[in-house]
Amino acid sequence: MSTDSAYRRFVSYIDKSRDFYAAQGYAQPYRWASPAGPPAFCPLPGPLSSLRLGLVTTAFPLPADGAAAAIERPYAAASEPPPATRFTADLNRDTDAAPANERESFLPLARLQELVAAGRLASFSPRFYGVPFDYSQRRTSEQDAPAVLESLRADEVDVAMLVPHCPVCHQSVALVARHLEANGIPTVVVGSARDIIEEIGVPRFLFVDFPLGYPTGRPGDPEQQRSICSQALHLLGGAWAAGTTVHADAEWGDDAWRANYMRVDDTTRASLAVAGASRRDDQRRARTEGRARLS
Q1: Domain count within the chain
Q2: 44-48, 59-63, 259-263 — which one is most confidently predicted on average?
Q3: What is the rounded distance in angstroms from the CA atom of residue 12 to the CA atom of residue 161?
Q4: Fewer Cβ in 10 A, N or C end of the chain?
Q5: Residue range 217-258, pLDDT digits in tens
Q6: 251: buried, middle or exposed (CB in 10 Å: 19+, 13-18, 0-12)?
Q7: Does residue 205 belong to any structural domain of this protein?
Q8: 164-197 b/e (C-beta count within 10 Å ≥ 16 → b)
Q9: What dihedral angle (degrees, nearest 10) is formed by the CA atoms of 102, 199, 69, 224?
């Protein structure tokens, strides 16, 4: 990773994804959301120790056969007992960076309950909330975000933590965060695609400079997971203006993932072209079957 101040120290997923999908045969670059004006900023209604927190995720349960399929609509699921290990899909994370798929690395239900027990929060919502990752910004803003808001209000949630996985997951979560904040629920986004989050603009962002898919800590490292969640709460209570980004005090270790993720070079071009053709076949099949969400 460059230490030259003329270069970004974090991965530009907007640039990487543009080049990656061009290599798959997509000629038109994706246009990321870029809302006019800054996001709303909602102060906390009281000290965190008196508030209920809700967790919003782009993760989703896998069917028994393990097949990866995007969810079609927002959902809410019980926080207790926590869901089984087979949760989310590998297409949403950097599988080369860590073979393990540990729930607390992306859906930190146990770590947040520990912070409730420590008195940092009054309570944790009885449900957590899933939002689809969607290339349709309109569908996210006009359908998904209001649905998440309705669920949070039904559970009397005071503040929300939003945890995305993939590049477009960060966009979906950012749009939801803006909607929640505009409707009176303070938010903090915990994620790893800084360029996407800052392009869209959110009230509070804890930047975890990790491979995609592990925003709340390395698999098998509960101390680090707890620390990241604690830092998110500190930002939630300490920020005083919209657009606040804090770089999390956390280290992944090996930096090879920075160059390897979405790599486009002579060793990958042929396989990317084949993968692109297969992806377009899948997208055509999804349209034929009436599935709105296209991965």
Answers
A1: 1
A2: 44-48
A3: 23
A4: N
A5: 999 999 999 999 999 999 999 999 999 999 999 999 888 899
A6: exposed
A7: yes
A8: bbbbbbbbbbbbbbbbbbeeebbbbbbbbbbbbb
A9: 0
Residue 52 belongs to some domain of the structure: yes
Sign of CA dihedral 105, 109, 115, 120: positive
Does 271 map to a domain?
A: no
What single letter denotes the amino acid at residue 207?
F
Query: Whose structure tokens read 């053709």?
Result: 277
Which residues, listed in sequence order, are joined to residue 205 by a DSSP beta bridge?
189, 245
Q: Looking at the domain assignment, is residue 198 inside a domain?
A: yes
- Token pair for 144: 């998904």
* CATH number of the domain where residue 225 is located: 3.40.50.2300
**Beta-carbon contacts of residue 238 (< 8 Å; ≥ 6 apart):** none
The answer to whether the beta carbons of residues 212 and 99 sit under 8 Å apart is no
| Residue numbers of the domain that contains 153 | 48-247
In this prediction the pTM is: 0.90
Report the relative pairing of strands 75-78 and 244-247 from DSSP bridges.
unpaired
Residue from 57, 12, 36 nearest 190 by CA: 57
Distance CA 156, CA 150 (A): 10
Q: What does the block give as tokens for 80?
A: 């207790």
What does the block give as tokens for 242? 């919209």
- Nearest one of 60, 17, 71, 84 to 293, comparing CA atoms: 71
Q: What pairs with residue 246 in β-bridges?
A: 206
CA 236 to chain centre: 17
Q: Residues 18-43: what's their mean pLDDT?
A: 93
Determine contact, residues 169/94, Cβ cutoff 8 Å.
no
Residue type at position 291: R
DSSP state of 35: -
Under the banding of pLDDT at 50, 70 and 90, the label for residue 60 is confident
Give the CA angle between residues 158, 33, 279 to the nearest 5°: 110
Amino acid at 157: V
For 77-97, what is the mean pLDDT?
Answer: 78
